[in-house]
Every structure is written in structure tokens, then in C-alpha cells.
Amino acid sequence: MKKARKLYESPSGDRWYLIADPSGAVFVHHEANLASGGQVEHEDIAAFLSRGAGPVCFSIEYAPLSRRSLRA
After folding, report:
1. What b/e string do you get for 20-52 counting C-beta neighbours within 10 Å, with b at 16 or more?
2. Across residues 3-21, what is the average pLDDT?
3. What is the DSSP letter of 35?
4. Which run of H or E residues covers position 44?
């Protein structure tokens, strides 16, 4: 079962979640707002952090990343 925690919601409605799957992999799930097309993207957390994506990266860097910290 995947576990998720909402990291950030932008004023325009984009949402980012931190997801842990049963294998232990952790990635970022991004849901674009409907005005932007509503696309959903998944990205490895290391790749996401290396891009320096503003306030979302800040949320991740200061959040505990253990699977225990993620809520179902």
C-alpha cells in the first residue's frame, strides 16, 4: 500500500505529495491545477530535489523522510 503526505499546495491550486511505495521508494507526486491541464507527474525524490523546485523543495528538506512519517 502506498503512503502519502501532502507537502504543499500553491495559490493556483497545484499540489505536491511525498509518496512512499511498498518497496520503500520515495517520490514526489505533482498534480497540476485544472487551468494548467491537470496533469499528474511522478518524479524520484533525488531528481526533484536536484532541480531546486522552490517552496516544495523547502518542504521536503525540512520534513522527516522516514516511511513512518508518511500517513496513509
Report:
1. beeeeebbbbbbbeeeeeeeeeeeebeebeeee
2. 88
3. G
4. strand 40-44
Rounded to a whole number of angstroms, the CA Rg of the chain reads 12
Q: pLDDT category, 58, cuts 50, 70, 90? A: low
Each domain of the chain, given as residue ranges in start order, spans: 3-63
Residues 38, 59: Cα–Cα separation, whole Å: 22
- Burial class of residue 16, CB neighbours in 10 A (0-12, 13-18, 19+): buried
Q: Provide the whole-model pTM.
A: 0.70
Cα–Cα distance measured from residue 72 to residue 55, given in angstroms and rounded to the nearest whole number: 23
- Rounded Cα distance between 11 and 67, Å, is 28
DSSP label at 71? Answer: B
